[in-house]
DNA sequence: CGTATTCATAACTACTCGGTTATGTAAAAT
DNA sequence: ATTTTACATAACCGAGTAGTTATGAATACG
């Protein structure tokens, strides 16, 4: 998934809290996720749908309940992006440092 | 800055593109950033204001023009958060693996 | 000086989006 | 078979937000 989608998906606090809980506590049902989410069950379901489309969670149906679980590997584009940005910046910084050093001699 | 603010700030494509350009190309004026941004100059100024409040960029006034530059260090809460999430997940994974191994013997 | 340039701010608009209630669907329970 | 339970979907609404044009403020220029 593109990092753009990940940013938009994780920008919402409720959604991010759901993902965090799944990372900390493992697979949970919608009912369990709803209590403590601070919003209604339909709201939770919608958020879980968005998280799923972003690849951040997976679902498993068991009887009439659905278990959701985190897929933190999906965060890798985000990690790559931040690394890339800091690297670009560092590159220019090194180049500048080099230039100053050469000017100094 | 809290990672919540960073996610919300970087969720907008135009804003993220501005930050990326500043990381790649170094300090740039508002006029230069505006051409190629695909939106009007006031829009660019507003986005830069939001990026600044998030600590992602800094500005420097030089005569009548303002130079903006990236501060990728501000991304660290984001990096920490992703690390934390994957760690939580890994911890539970390791515990499970352990349990299975003990059950196997 | 007066004018032009560069950026920021104000005021407004259109749309997105997160929330709600209501309802549908499928599986368990009685 | 009927009812309850668990979740998803639909329809709708209010608030936030990204965009616009218009204008203000400050600095360079002729």
UniProtKB/TrEMBL annotation, chains A, B:
Coiled-coil segments: none
SMART domains recorded: HTH_ARSR (SM00418)
PROSITE patterns, sorted: HTH_ARSR_2
Organism for this UniProt entry: Hyphomonas oceanitis SCH89
Database matches in Gene3D superfamilies: Winged helix-like DNA-binding domain superfamily/Winged helix DNA-binding domain
Keywords linked to the UniProt accession: DNA-binding, Transcription, Transcription regulation
Molecular-function annotations in GO: DNA binding; DNA-binding transcription factor activity
Name of protein: ArsR family regulatory protein
Residue ranges of every copy of the HTH arsR-type domain listed in the record: 1-90
